[in-house]
Design a protein that fits this description.
Shape: globular
Number of helices: 10
Order of helices and strands: EHEEHEHEHEHEEEEHHEEEEEEEHHHE
Strand order of the largest sheet: 17-16-15-14-7-13-12-11-18
CATH architecture of the largest domain: 2-Layer Sandwich
Radius of gyration: 21 Å
Helix content: 25-40%
Number of strands: 18
Structural class: alpha/beta
Strand content: 25-35%
């Protein structure tokens, strides 16, 4: 089955062009970006600066939506309405209402929809799945994650749309704010930690509470420095997430699972460090080191490739994708609700389960 593919958004979307081209039976036929200069490298394809024209005239079966976060929901609804299969970058929606719109569009369409939560396909998730299958952790009662890094150098743009580093902002006049400064509350970008944790726990969050630190690192930008969310799951476990992108803090990724028989934690700051303790193996209080697999999978494949290929296989076989529209919202809505809670001072909020709802 030959599939014609298109990619909207040629920042990270360039990687999707290359990944789709690697898949046998996939042909990239069209690309779209509002900046015409980004289209210059794709003269052999149909090129568009307008998304609606891209959808109507691109001649595609599949579209990868890798555009500005706030545009993802509306663009997904448009593509699904046109009968196109959609793989969408995170965050796939920004509000509960948007989530309902995407779910309803996916239900009404014959096309497939999937959130590109590629971290689920990383090597460390494979390793931890085996620990859980072997009963090393017992019942998981608590999970936590942190995703923090300094994005302030992509907060400001000049008149041409180019990013201006934070240290150079005073050298320019008429600077604008990029969407990551104005439209990316940290917990709305939660799926890179929450997705893998919920996948490993085979669970979903049902309530959320959040707090935020305010805007101190880049005054005047409105960008929230840090947000923290606490969640209760359907199985009665707890999850804590910490996210921050407007902060003096290089990339750091932390996840932990705490069970009735053991616990495992991973911290990635440059190199990865994985620590574990299993009561059936360790009599003392010392943690032991596990192989620090971050991206490396047992099968040697690249995790993003596995993610995209899984979606393409679901289109070809008319089966549910690895992350269906409901799981996509399970991995996204808790952060949205926690952010809304933080805006209201930390009130506990119900997280809707959109299965069966309209």
């Amino acid at each position: 089955m030959k599939l014609k593919c298109g990619v909207a958004g040629l920042g990270r979307g360039r990687t999707f062009v290359e990944e789709l081209r690697k898949i046998s039976g996939c042909e990239v036929v069209a690309v779209c970006d509002e900046n015409p200069h980004k289209l210059e490298d794709y003269g052999d394809l149909r090129t568009f600066t307008e998304y609606d024209a891209f959808i109507n005239d691109g001649g595609m079966d599949v579209v990868a939506i890798i555009t500005r976060g706030p545009d993802h929901a509306a663009q997904s609804v448009t593509a699904l309405g046109a009968g196109l299969h959609v793989i969408c970058e995170t965050p796939c929606v920004y509000t509960v209402d948007e989530a309902r719109e995407v779910v309803n569009a996916a239900r009404s369409s014959s096309a497939r929809y999937m959130l590109t939560e590629d971290y689920i396909f990383m090597g460390w998730v494979q390793t931890w799945e085996k620990l859980i299958e072997d009963g090393k952790l017992g019942e998981i009662v608590y999970a936590e994650g942190e995703y923090t890094h300094d994005c302030r150098n992509i907060f400001f743009i000049d008149e041409s749309g180019a990013y201006v580093p934070l240290k150079d902002r005073d050298k320019h006049s008429n600077l604008g704010l990029a969407w990551r400064a104005t439209d990316l509350p940290p917990l709305k970008y939660c799926s890179h930690t929450l997705g893998p944790l919920l996948h490993l726990m085979s669970d979903r969050c049902v309530t959320a509470s959040g707090l935020q630190s305010g805007c101190k690192s880049v005054p005047g930008s409105g960008a929230i420095d840090m947000e923290v969310g606490i969640f209760k799951t359907e199985k009665g476990s707890l999850v804590r997430l910490t996210n921050g992108f407007s902060i003096a803090h290089p990339f750091a990724y932390f996840v932990g699972l705490y069970g009735t028989k053991g616990s495992v934690k991973m911290l990635r700051i440059g190199e990865s460090s994985v620590k574990a303790w299993f009561e059936d193996e360790h009599s003392g209080s010392s943690w032991v080191d596990l192989p620090a697999q971050w991206a490396d999978r047992d099968d040697g494949r690249v995790w993003l490739s596995v993610c995209i290929e899984g979606f393409i296989d679901s289109v070809r076989n008319d089966t549910e994708p690895p992350i269906d529209v409901y799981k996509s919202m399970d991995y996204t809505l808790p952060g949205i609700c926690a952010h809304d809670s933080a805006e209201q001072g930390g009130n506990v909020m119900e997280i809707p389960d959109l299965r069966g709802s309209t």
